[in-house]
Amino acid sequence: MAGQMPIGKWHKYIGDPAVADAIMDRLVYSSMKIELKGESLRKTRGKPGG
């Protein structure tokens, strides 16, 4: 869920700002943030095995 969603959208997705902040504090505190841009390689390369 959160791993593929931009952090800026978590509040709206989770629905409760206090809960979203608590989750973000725990996840983001000791993690590395990497934001990828562009289309998914799965979309550009097609289905595996096909």
From TrEMBL:
Q: A single Pfam family, by name?
A: IstB_IS21
Q: Which organism is it from?
A: Pseudoxanthomonas spadix (strain BD-a59)
Ranges for domain IstB-like ATP-binding come to 3-44
Identification of the protein by name:
IstB-like ATP binding protein
Task: Please give one Gene Ontology molecular function term for this protein.
Answer: ATP binding
Which InterPro entries does UniProt cross-reference here? IstB_ATP-bd (IPR002611), P-loop_NTPase (IPR027417)
